[in-house]
Amino acid sequence: MNPTPRFLIPALTASVLALSLAGCEPTGTALVEDNKQQQQQGDEQTSTATIHEGTISASETWTKAGGPHVVRGKVYVQSEQGATLTIEAGAQVRFELGAGLYFGYESGKRGVLDAQGTVEQPIVFASAASSPAKGDWAAVYLGNGAASSMMSHCTISHGGGGSEAALIVEGAGNKPAVMNCTIEQSASLGIKLSADAYFVAFENNVVKTSASNPIRLGANEAGSLGSGNRFEENGVQAIHVDAGTVSRSTSWLPQGVPYRLHGTTYVQHETIAPVLAIKPGATLEFGPEAALKVAHGSGTQGALYAIGTAEAPITFRGVSTEPGSWAGISMGEGTVAGAELSVNTTVIQHAVIEHGGGGNTNDSALLYLYNAKPLVENVTFRHSGSTKAVVVRGVRSKVPTFDSWGLFGDNGSGNVWGAGLEMPAVEDAAQNDS
Q: Which pTM value belongs to this model?
């Protein structure tokens, strides 16, 4: 179905119509009542506004001149042959209560959004209410059939009602571009990526005043966040990263707010060695019992390349500042050994690791190594929940020598167990094979 848009004509009240037919001028009271009824409709539409409802199954364009465009209920843009909705720069898209715009929603159907505004003429997705509030409408949804969608210089406001976010991107292989956009006043998350969706570009965006986090996404997708973004005044000022596996090489850039990891994040693959590169100034924040594990699974490989600077160190910390509030970082036997200036190896430099070491086992520490040999320099280890900052197990040839490791402090009764600065020499590590 490809419904013909309908045009809104302001309705006259029965009393005004009767007076007009009688050749009389309407009274002030009648005009006031008419105005009240129009306000109760919850929109600011004029006689040129266009209503859209149902399913759009063929490509079409929503023009600036034809606006405001009013979305009523759930409007789907999709077909088996594919449909593209192009929205002109400067166009206004208004959503009635609970409405939403869904692209490529059903399996096997394609629907693409092409919304490219300009600095002078942004595209607006907003509530149709005369007094908008958070959650007035649902979401702009980009499903798996909306893979090549583009949004630039757009504003999305007062969505997230009855929905997980104001902008939802879902589906493996779904790679939209979102640039120079503002998402604000969501009743839930600002943006959610799920089911392996990935931004082909996400730059110079502002996500602000959401009731929850500005954005939620998986560990394998966090690297699709580009530069120049700002996250401001949200209910939770952190990027929510779901537990999962980083199975392809990626970089996490500093975003002005921490990446908040929930559960365990693995960096590993059976046939390749994915590298998680953390850029200078980035902060990784771990929830209760959360952990970062490199090459943890049997037969897997992986690397962590986290090089900060003296001016912009990388921080691994707990959401809670209580020692032991998260598990810590662990590296298994398949961890790629560290090498100077080699981006495909495991290196931690100019970093702070704190508040980890939870779990109350002999292996609890801020950093646990099993036959893993990272290059670690100028790293501060502190506030461990264990009696140890670093635990090493393995054979001598496969563990570090701990030269220039950095500073230790407030770690219970010890710093390194098995090998280290003030503890027995590295030969002791060979006694701890397991």
A: 0.85
